[in-house]
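Researcher: Quick one. two chains, 578 residues in total.
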Amino acid sequence: MKQLEEKIFKIIMICSAMIILGVLVYIIATVFYRGLPALTLDMITKLPGGGFYLGKEGGVLNAIVGSIYIIIGSLAISMFISVPLVMYINFYLPAKSVFSSLIRFSLDILFGIPSIVYGAFGFALMIFLGVRASLLGGILTVAMLIMPIMMRSFDEITRLLSRELPDALLSLGATKYEMVKVILRQLMPGLVTAILLAIGRGIGDAATVLFTAGYTDNIPNSLNQPAATLPLSIFFQLGSPVEEVQNRAYASAIILTVIILILSFSARYFSSKFSKNKI
Amino acid sequence: MRRLRAAKDKIARYLMLGIAIFTILFLLVIGLSLFFKALPIMRAKNLWVLLSSANWKPFKGDFGFLPFILSTFYVSLIAIIIALPFSILTSIYLNSYASKNVRRFFEPVVDLLSGIPPIIYGVWGTLTIVPLIANKIAPRFVEFSTGYTVLAGGIVLAVMIIPLLISITLEVFRSIPKEMTDASLSMGATKWQTVKKVILRKSISGIIAATVLALSRAFGETMAVLMVCGNITQLPHSIFDACYPLPALIANNYGEMLSMPNYESALMFSAFLLFIIVVLFNGISRFTLNQIERRYQFS
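Model:
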């Protein structure tokens, strides 16, 4: 009897794991199946031409470049804040201090705040500062979104580092600041993983840039011009009643999916490299 | 030279302290600025009326948020109901049954599922789930449905929160000392009996915390849900009705909000509402999870 129950539940569990795997394959397959016919070289090398949204020629280069601009800017900002913070929690504060657990707790909560709330807050902030929807607004808002992601994943990896290296450095007479500089080099693969994860989240998010970055058919030349983004480009093309435009939305979805796949696998590669270094 | 090094160290330390304080205060800043942005409408209307009225006519100055709140709640509830069994069963399988290779294979699967952008989920939902509901599922129960429904939103959301649920329940399972399961197994219990009587019983608080966390993630999800749930302002009566969750309300109405009095404030009010609920849910569940982790780490 108990053997039978064992078998039944094992089968149910394997089925549910298979279904989850199947859904992932189904999602990727659906996007590729619908998008591949419309995916041409023009899509990634050309700006939207006249009548692009009526099905005429052009591509989504504006959105690709806009997304890259925004992610580079927000990465720069969030790195300048995340790296010192993680070093501070791990090497400056005592191991079980109340302050460090308070910081980690607020990071956990910041991590859970939905991107639409960041979007609304970013928008309110921009009205307050008198900035219109622009590249700058998008960069700032996406930076808020990816900062907790970066901090948390970098912190998790930093916690795994053995205490021997920092102790050895300190006993050699290095100041804490000098110690941190050496440790950072050791933590490089971990930092790369954290950055890749943050890029993955930032580049795919539409709700944050919806009101803060605006949309344009051109590539922005300065920080106060609006910038297009890949997810929004997909969204707007999907809203078109013209079938060619909708098909191009699916093609743009392939571009975004491929970017995410590459980022996800390289993050995995770097984190496995890190655990090899560690042992 | 020595003094320079000490000075550098000191400057770095204060800068870092500043960043740390900023991070903690940032949460407060977001909350307060959303609150002040929402203040005009809370002044103009009774808070209870805002939350409990179903009358939404921004042109006439009527702002009842009930349809949006209920929509958010229904969609998230369906998502949790669908996602929870799959996630728990898969986590148990990965934790207690699967070989090392299967586990190694499944890690990137979960990673990828959580990495796929909401907009891609939305595209997938409109291409597959919506027609499936409109043509196959709904006709068995109701006369007509466009497919853009509470159910569609719930299904897409379920897939989106499964990776979060799996990774947290796996962590909770791992925090159970191996001696406990070994003891159960050596007493002649089968694996499933051990799972049922030891692992699940020990991790019930962790699973509840994970559920609350996933629920708060579901509340705030915007783009994917917006694309599949119809966006009609009404009180949904069945899972085959269209609905209009709070995040979708914010996302859809930003362009036009400045032209109507109190409209901006009303949208900021919904953002504030989301913020409060999410911070509350997150706070409770993260606290519980930290507690669990600590209990086993140092025992």
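Chain B is about 75% helix and 0% strand.
Researcher: Thanks, that's what I needed.
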